[in-house]
Design goal:
The chain is of the alpha/beta class. Helix content is about 65%, strand content about 10%. It has a domain of about 325 residues: Up-down Bundle (ABC transporter transmembrane region fold). A six-stranded mixed sheet has the order 6-7-8-3-9-10, sandwiched between helices. Strands 2-1-4-5 form a four-stranded antiparallel sheet, with helices on one face. It binds adenosine-5'-triphosphate.
Amino acid sequence: MKILSSHHTMANNKNNTSMRKMLRIASYLKPHWLLFTAGMISLLISSLAGLAFPKLLGDLVSGGKSGIGIHTTGTLLIGILIIQAAFSFLRTILFVNAAEKALATLRQTIYNHLIRLPMHFFLTRRVGELSSRISADVALLQETFTSTSAEFIRQVITVGGGLILLMTISSKLTGFMLAILPIMVIIAGVFGRFIRRFAREVQDQIASSNTVVEETLQGIFSVKAFANEYFEISRYRESTNRAARYGIIAGRYKGALSSFVILGIFGALVAVIWRGAAIGLDNGQLFSFVLYSINIGGSIGGLAEIYTSLQKSVGATENLFQLLDEPAEDITPPETIAPEHQLNGNISFSQISFHYPSREESTVLKDMSFQVSTNQKIAIVGPSGAGKSTVVSLLMRMYNPSGGHILFDSKDSNHIPLTALRSQMAVVPQDVFLFGGTIGENIAYGRQGATEAEIIEAAQKANAWEFIQRFPLGLQTIVGDRGVQLSGGQRQRIAIARAVLKEPRILILDEATSALDAESEKLVQEALDRLMEGRTSIVIAHRLATIRQADKIIVLDRGAIVEEGTHTELVNVNGGLYKNLSEMQFTQ
Ligand code: ATP
């Protein structure tokens, strides 16, 4: 349903007027209105100065402005040029200032929103596409804010003011000129609409070819391991060629538009000079008239371009707002947890059923109920795909169950603020994700602001200190692509150190399926046992040997609990799934 409703909002958004969207994006400029207004005034002054230029130049050609002579006119002209240059510099500086600040806010707003979106949003999106889409769309808006909109205003002034001045020279000739111009404008407008359609297509294609690059570079190991380089090369070739094809079509329309404008303007220019000469205008007047006509013609051509680029920004705005309109999770800044939201560690699943939002038809958990008391250690076992990780996701409220309730100390999970809930749990996952920074930073991810002494203590408790110390740079050792390569067991111990720092009330261990060597395994297990002490722990177990001491073992099969009890109880259930699984493992 969630996905369907987001399609509805998409349709509604499309129906909104472009103007409303532009106004919404302009609201980001509001805090910088002073800069923006100052920029506007500079723009106005430089445009008006530009407007006076052809007139004075005409006067100069006619031998000086009536009554003030050649030299004064010339000096005036230079003065006007200086004013125009100074204010156009000022205008650029002011607009860029306002726009950069507004864009930083916009980028922050988008990221703030994006990172708070619920898991199900990310299930149906590709990360590469999302990130390149956002950067491309924001870049487009940057262009609009810093230059396109100012250009638009300048061109409008040039056209409007130019026409008024033309009238003062010769209304007859202006009327003649006007008879040609509007036709050109209309045709250019129609072209502009075509271009807008293709420009959008080109943008989408470029975003999807960037996705190929990002995904394959992120997954470079898999690409190489499967010897799929040539497959990816051809995938990228197809997608860039497609982008090029659309780009070429868009370019064709763009080219046709400029040719049309050139032909129209030069045709009109010839006609105007011809007509002006026939009417008998003097050299200076004719010179001014031609300059204004060229300016007006150029501006109209420019306006068509600006129109398409503004349309592209509307497209970009649409995408960004669509993202901003997705409902986010209720994440709050971390703060001390209110006493009423502090967990004791009792957990109860009551008749939970669940299916993933992206796969409505397949029920993953069916009517599941179980209880865990404070400081108990429970294990969840079962065949692959039984739903073990899903139980953990629901516990952390990554998704909402489709039926039933999850209770913490007999309080409904939905009544505990999300941040408070998650900050009292820690997960040691199967695949430990390390960020690109140092080992120290990666451990501190468990609790921002931890001191070095605390980090070292956590590393010691996690049996990680010994190997970290052996690196020449210790905690400052860079993890990541070009940094040290950490082994599976080392990564896990870093994840354990993170969890130690977090001091969670509830600990979730997703046991690694990949076998560690006996020594690493002993170190990891030791660290885990230490970590589990005095907390409610839930272990997703793959190796049954590690959970013999569990207070309770829950055996899952195809989304339902099939057995529950201690190891001793369960191995005595004849024909039971646990007995079966353990016999298989221990006889290996
Ligand atoms: P394993 O031991 O292999 O990790 P598991 O018991 O943890 O398996 P889950 O990952 O909870 O199993 O998956 C349970 C079911 O839910 C599977 O059928 C799986 O295909 C499905 N599933 C898991 N994640 C998603 C998802 N993000 N979207 C849709 N279906 C999913």
